[in-house]
Amino acid sequence: MRLLRNLVPGGAERHVGLLALLAVAAILAGCASARASGDPATVRIAVNAVAGGKNDAMVAWLTEVLPDVERKSGAHVQIVQDGGGDESFKSRLVLDLQGGTGADIYSFDSLWTAQMASAGHLLALDPWLKKWSDWPRYPAAMRGMGAYRGHTYVLPFQTDVRGIYYRKDLFAKAGLPTDWHPKSFQDIYAAGEALRKLDGVTPIQWNATTAFGEAATLQGFYLALLGAGGDLFDAKAEKWVASSPALRAALEFYRQVYVERGLGDVALQLDPKGRERSFEAFRDGRMAIYPEGTYMWRDVLRPDSAWGIPDRDAVVGWAPMPGTDGPVSISGGDAFILNKNARNRDLAWKVLAALASADSLGARMRLTPFIPARADLLALPAFRADAELAREVEQALPVTRFRPGYPAYPRVSELVQRMAEKVIQRIRGSIRTERIRGSIRPLALAGCSSIRSRDLG
Question: What range does the domain containing 41 cover?
């Protein structure tokens, strides 16, 4: 096993363009040379991580398990470390795939799947997955993480889920059950109305605006939209959904929370530091209901973190987001892909399958607990040590879905934030959601309904 590190100089103030060109040329030349003269039994894994830096847990895990992976696969494995930014890593990946060079296996953000698969950059894993005895251990939602037009392009590694966090102590003061399980939007409103009786408490924080960025879309609007039975993208028709009863219901949910019932803090939503201040308010018991991802439990509220709650396990509860046909959730996810230019695809798959085995991922769980895409790993003691996180994942993982990974998604996401932002700022009078949607039409969200995903890139 060999560890390779690609060092990209940072902070250069002069000759950046020339340095970038030289760096790319060196990388491509080096990769091409390695592919031309390397050992056919060598498999290279490129990860957006570096020892002692970004995602160092990934490197620590690979370093520990690769001897066993080499034994199982018969390959000689090298790790190529890249500690650059996400977009930098993505750009390098595209260059490698287009140029017929690079590593054999890459770490991969599942959000990129549709975009790269539609461009012909990815290799479908179906021939190997259909023979792999471990594939059924992945829930249907996880198997769909890297699916596009009937083919699967990624092997899921880890994920997250989203739901509603709430302060049990505030619920108790408001006379609400601390074991809360809302079944509808009305149940959320009702809890907010009861919590409004508490002095100095914001009943509901539901991310809504451009100040919150993607958190407003994923933790806010998308949860409400799924709860209303809708989605932003029609996968069968391959087009963005710009008008639907569910879309109007999601906007009406925001209107009820922020305008009609006054259960949320509009000023906080418009604050550039609103998300951080929301974390503080929730920590300090000044906010009662806050939908978020499992990042909230594992990192934000962790007792030793800046926004941590010392008695978190006692005072913070979690409930799945109610939907028209049961709970809903939405996730992101990390995965691995095979380079379509791999010298020996079958050998590269053997390495990937060994990495994704229960033994290998179990070692990662012992090093750094994470939310696995494999359902059987949920029974591991290292995962179940956090009983609350385990409960959240077990309820949400079977029903979760993923963002539509098309190039237009960031644009659509911003338009969604601007729509919700318009709703919560109309604080006087009776506002019809149709009028609010109409005001956003010049921004072309409605135009997406007639543009197929392939036309959007």
Answer: 2-160+332-385
